[in-house]
């Protein structure tokens, strides 16, 4: 699932909570379908997700129609309610990549306490943040790895991690001093001081196999500028680190989303007469730019520079080649099974 789909699902869940909270007489599923622009299956799935998070729904049958609203429960002496719990749950769902860190553990403890005070009555109800968000998905990190790294950072000790970088044939041990986290796209990275290389490095958490804490105290790093360091790292992730201007055209069908899911934060959007838009941005390289363009499918076209157009053309040519000629054995059987509905 793409980052755009994840955001869309979270926005839809928050909108659902607001609809249920504001409705005096509740909302029927058909009404929710219209307001959320979602299918009945999606609405029912989201309602089940809300209940699974321990947020009490109050269904009421009126004139043969089932109407849903949030239960009017609240925590005595505290300004929180079911809608507060729902808001915390939606926010927590967007932080699944940070599972295992101290801050997220504290948020989980808070939501569990609120759910307990509100008296979640659904059988098997779980605390907010421990349930999946419908069709939303993010790259979830290994909780034990993340917890150990966070412990090393908080207790200011060194850690030995097994790491297999992009150019490494096998994983190898690295002694590091973890400093801070950052998200890039859908991936989580940790900046750390590499004790073997005597320099700062960025490690992708998904590539860390294990973490062992040591008793060696970490050094102080008063001059480490996290923002500046990650800004340089992002250029490397973007491909080559050469900043350049890119222009991408989005079709009228998706033009309205250009500002909602930007290529870069300071992009410029120019609306054209046919309803399409041109997105102009300074980018760090082609890798992330190409992924962004490909994410829009046939609704996006890389206009300039020529190097970007050439790279896109080659990528699309190779992708199209996967669907030409004979189907790989085994894949053909899977394809036939899908097309016949498993018969």
Provide the succession of SSEs: HHHEEHHHEEEEEHEEEHEHH
Silhouette: flat
Structural class: alpha+beta
The helical percent reads 25-40%
Biggest sheet strand order reads 6-5-4-3-7
For the biggest sheet, the summary is:
5 strands, antiparallel
What does this structure look like?
With 343 residues, the chain is of the alpha+beta class. It has 3 domains: 108 residues, Winged helix-like DNA-binding domain superfamily/Winged helix DNA-binding domain (Arc Repressor Mutant, subunit A); 82 residues, SH3 type barrels (Roll); 78 residues, Alpha-Beta Plaits. It has 10 helices and 11 strands. The chain has a 5-stranded antiparallel beta sheet. α2 packs across α3 and α4 packs antiparallel against α5. The radius of gyration is 24 Å and the shape is flat.
Fold blueprint:
Layout: H1 3-22, H2 29-36, H3 40-52, E1 60-62, E2 65-67, H4 82-93, H5 102-118, H6 143-155, E3 157-163, E4 172-184, E5 187-194, E6 199-204, E7 208-217, H7 226-239, E8 244-250, E9 268-271, E10 277-283, H8 286-295, E11 300-304, H9 306-321, H10 331-339
Antiparallel strand pairs: 1-2, 3-4, 3-7, 4-5, 5-6, 8-10, 8-11, 9-10
Helix pairs in contact: 1-4, 2-3, 4-5
Key structural traits:
343 residues, alpha+beta, Arc Repressor Mutant, subunit A, SH3 type barrels, Alpha-Beta Plaits, five-stranded antiparallel sheet, four-stranded antiparallel sheet, 10 helices, 11 strands, flat
Summarize the structure.
With 343 residues, this protein is an alpha+beta fold. Helices cover 38% and strands 21% of the residues. It has three domains: 3-93 and 102-118, Winged helix-like DNA-binding domain superfamily/Winged helix DNA-binding domain (Arc Repressor Mutant, subunit A); 143-224, Roll (SH3 type barrels), CATH 2.30.30; 244-321, Alpha-Beta Plaits, CATH 3.30.70.
């Amino acid at each position: 699932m793409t980052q755009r789909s994840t955001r869309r699902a979270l926005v839809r869940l928050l909108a659902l909570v607001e609809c249920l909270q504001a409705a005096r007489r509740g909302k029927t599923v058909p009404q929710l379908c219209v307001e959320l622009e979602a299918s009945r299956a999606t609405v029912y799935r989201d309602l089940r997700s809300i209940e699974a998070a321990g947020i009490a729904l109050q269904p009421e049958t009126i004139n043969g129609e089932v109407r849903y609203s949030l239960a009017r429960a609240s925590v005595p002496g505290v300004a929180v309610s079911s809608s507060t719990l729902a808001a915390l749950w939606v926010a927590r769902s967007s932080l699944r990549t940070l599972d295992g860190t101290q801050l997220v553990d504290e948020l989980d403890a808070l939501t569990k306490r609120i759910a307990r005070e509100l008296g979640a009555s659904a059988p098997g109800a779980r605390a907010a943040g421990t349930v999946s968000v419908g069709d939303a998905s993010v790259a979830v990190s290994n909780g034990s790895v993340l917890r150990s790294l966070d412990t090393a950072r908080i207790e200011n000790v060194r850690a030995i991690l097994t790491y297999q970088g992009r150019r490494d044939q096998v994983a190898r041990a690295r002694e590091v001093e973890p400093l801070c986290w950052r998200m890039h796209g859908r991936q989580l990275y940790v900046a750390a001081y590499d004790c073997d290389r005597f320099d700062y490095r960025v490690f992708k958490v998904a590539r860390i196999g294990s973490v062992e804490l040591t008793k060696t105290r970490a050094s102080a790093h008063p001059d480490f500028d996290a923002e500046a360091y990650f800004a340089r790292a992002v250029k490397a992730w973007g491909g080559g680190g050469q900043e350049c201007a890119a222009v991408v055209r989005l079709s009228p069908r998706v033009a309205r989303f250009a500002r909602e899911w930007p290529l870069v934060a300071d992009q410029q959007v120019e609306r054209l007469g046919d309803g399409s838009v041109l997105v102009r941005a300074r980018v760090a390289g082609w890798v992330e730019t190409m992924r962004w363009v490909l994410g829009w499918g046939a609704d996006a076209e890389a206009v300039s520079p020529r190097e970007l157009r050439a790279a896109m053309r080659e990528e699309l040519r190779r992708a199209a080649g996967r669907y030409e000629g004979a189907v790989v054995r085994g894949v053909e059987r899977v394809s036939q099974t899908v097309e016949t509905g498993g018969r």
